[in-house]
Amino acid sequence: MSEDPNCAVAHGHAPAEQHARTLVAVFDSPVAGFLLRYASDVGYRPVLLDPSGDAPAPPAVKLVTSYAECSGPDTDVVVTDHHRPELGVVLRDILAAQAAWIGVMGSPRHQGPHVAALTALGVPADQIARVHRPIGLNIGSKTPAEIALATIAGLIAARNQCPGGFEF
Predict the structure, then answer these.
(1) Cα–Cα dist 78/36, whole Å
(2) What's the rounded Cα separation, in Å, for the pair 49 and 65?
(3) Between the ranges 30-34, 62-66, 162-166, where is the mean pLDDT highest?
(4) Domain holding 84: CATH number?
(5) Domain-located, residue 89
(6) 7 part of a folded domain
(7) At 82, is the pLDDT very low, low, confident or very high (cuts 50, 70, 90)?
(8) What average pLDDT does the chain have?
């Protein structure tokens, strides 16, 4: 009987499949720091997009000031601060560059400010609908590390076309 390939990976008997994907965390924040650390651990190329250019570059993370420097169909984008005044402009540029997945952190109890910001910039409703909110798996996250973990788990679930949670 041959070993299940997933078990072989879990036991260190086979290399894990590498995904040629990039994860862009938009805006420097505590969540972004954990998100980029975890992203690297699960095979993403981590990128921090900080339009101000003032953010320090975390170790092994590419720092960019424009989405054009890291765009593409193999790129997932997570906006980690929905209160920034440049939110609409940044998201408009990300939508135009056709990122594979785009999400904005925030409470599901009210409409995200990105909707009004993008509408004011003339972005069509079907494009605004490409922006996911809330994001991540619903695990009751409270800390920046937990929020980042839930977000990474949600991205992996979406990439693998799985619902997440404990149903298989």
Answers:
(1) 10
(2) 6
(3) 30-34
(4) 3.40.50.720
(5) yes
(6) no
(7) confident
(8) 87
Q: Is the peptide bond before 113 cis (omega within 30 degrees of 0)?
A: no
Strand extents, DSSP E, 2-160: 21-26, 44-49, 62-64, 75-79, 101-104, 131-132
Total structural domains in the chain?
A: 1
8 burial via Cβ count (<10 Å: 0-12, 13-18, 19+): middle
Q: Would residue 9 count as lying in a domain? A: no
Q: What does the pLDDT look like over 125-142, one tens digit per residue?
A: 999 999 998 888 989 899
Taking CA atoms, 51 is separated from 25, 54, 65, 102, in Å, by 12, 8, 4, 17
pLDDT-wise least confident of 13-17, 35-39, 65-69, 85-89: 13-17
Closest by alpha carbon to 39, among 67, 7, 78?
78
Is residue 67 in a domain? yes
For residue 99, give both structure tokens. Answer: 């990122």
pLDDT of 16 > 70? The answer is no
Range of the structural domain that residue 148 is part of: 19-159
CA angle 88-38-149, nearest 5°? 75
